[in-house]
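Async update (no meeting this week)

Hi team, since we skipped the sync, here's where things stand on the single-chain job. The sequence we agreed to prioritize is pasted below, unchanged from the tracker. I ran it this morning and attached the output directly underneath so nobody has to dig for it. Comments welcome in thread, and please keep replies under the output.
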Amino acid sequence: MKRQAVILAGGKGTRLQERLAGRPKPLIDVGGVPLLERQLTLLASNGFTEALLLVNHAADQIEAFCASARLEISVTTINDGDAKGTAGAVLSAYSQLDERFLVVYGDTLFDVDLERFWRVHVEAAAEATLFLHPNDHPNDSDLVALGHSGNITGFYGYPHPAGSLLPNLVNAALYIVERQALSRWLQQSFPLDFAKDLFPAMVAAGQRLRGYTSFEYIKDIGTPDRLDKASHHLETGLVERARRKHLQKAVFFDRDGTLNDLAGYVRHHSEFSLLPGTAEAIRRLNEAEYRVAVITNQPVIARGEASVEDLTLIHNKMETELGRKGAWLDLIKYCPHHPDSGFPDEVKSLKITCDCRKPGIAMIEEASTQLNIDKKISWMVGDSTTDVLAANRAGLRSVLVRTGEGGLDHRANARPDVIVDDVAAATRFILDVYPSLCIVLEPLVRKIRPGDLVMIGGCAKLGKTTIATVLSWFLNEKQYSNRVLELDCFIRSATSRDGGSVFSRYELELAIELISPWLSNGESIAIDLPRYDRETQVRTLAVDHLQLESTDVLIVEGVPALSMMLPPSRPQSRSIHRVWVTGDERRRRHRVIQTLRDRGEGQAEALAIYESRRLDEDAYIAADAVKADFRFCVDDLL
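Output:
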């Protein structure tokens, strides 16, 4: 099937003169290959059969290059004479345009799934589709606004009016255009630019322009700095990693209470304020090649307390504040529904029970599809138990922040994988702590085989749970199926304890009884586990379920883990790896007291509990250290 691309290759490249050495800009060397050759090769690999090159400056060199290069695409050059602007040059070649064609700027390095771009345009039945993306400097960029349906509603050229709240969507200079859509503009005077002149006029005239937003790589190389940056991205593999064929890693953020102050419902953009450190944290994730998406429940729409236009301005303000510090969001998804009626201005059609409202996962699933996300290596950061439950249901790693509701909403029965202070700490955990812990655990992971048992013990608040969680993720990445059993679920209710030692608080006999068939006989087992509530100090029986296959790795963690008297393991190939976690006592004391204070204990009470636990734990648990095959201290990381 014939498919045409039009390449605007007539620019002089004034800002690149020091690098061109007399060549025209399209022939600039990028990573050892002329830019035009890179463009033509990509076009051919995406099913384009013809390239129409609109040339001007040094046209003879471009024509000579095309004649000598071994290309898998037919190339025709047209010298468009006097400068006519980007749109003017295309209009001048109107008679040679296909019914549908791609417009490529001759100074852009891009690696885009053009077949998908083309397909989306055709399915949308738009008159033109523009490739859009966020960037790290929207405040000095030409921006585009999209309506809820994905149609372009406005163009906002730089400089922007003071105080304007605009989305971070930049026109990336890659378009698919219907030839007939240009017919009414043939008599326009030149020069005529697509972004500044023609496209805004088309929208004003009621023509349908579609936005196609993508994380794929596209950058103009029109200055030495931009050229060097693009060349570096090629060398380091960033361009390749941003291809849609590769699954991406992502961090999904809740909004209210996580990214911005939680002061009731945000109904107006004047009420929105980013929490300190948020923009810097998201910028770090951008730079680390994480896709960043906001997933937020916004019942103010269903309740009639804010309009979609109000919400758009709120999100524009969020993107504007992030953009000022070089950060951006790849996607924003919101649920406008609310299940409960009785609000005076409510929107009846939105008062429904839906799949998108968290802890539903429809928004996460849609975002994962749009951004091509590998959920197994992606994260959800939020301040509520509904965020945690949504993450658990979607197969994401969950991080609870102590800002906003701090997990005290009690709306869902869900436990986070990690608890940190705020978004900055969450980002630090994702980018710094987790990779560092994987390095620390590497010697242990090398020893583990399918069906093995890992026992992680040590005094309270030294990082055992975090180590167990990270070990589980690490094993998942190595394709080792595994399960984590936390001994804290076997803590007896306060009224059922006999004596003051650590062993009187744990019903270890029950834990051993439940896992013995798997350990001793090599059986697959399905067991019901109790759950201990630290606030009420009550244990509820048979609440959680654990399915354990014979070849799963079982990770058991808890203060007395190394004290458990286990039966002999069978088959003989099943190994037991014992891990002792240690650390600085002053740091541990601070963490224990802080945890108790967070639960409502006074300073004196928290200190007294710490001292009593230190006396009844340390002597017994310290003796377990000699049983360990591995010793880890993660104080400096945590």
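Quick observations from my side:
Residues 423-447 form the longest helix (25 residues).
The mean pLDDT is 93.
Reply here if anything looks off.
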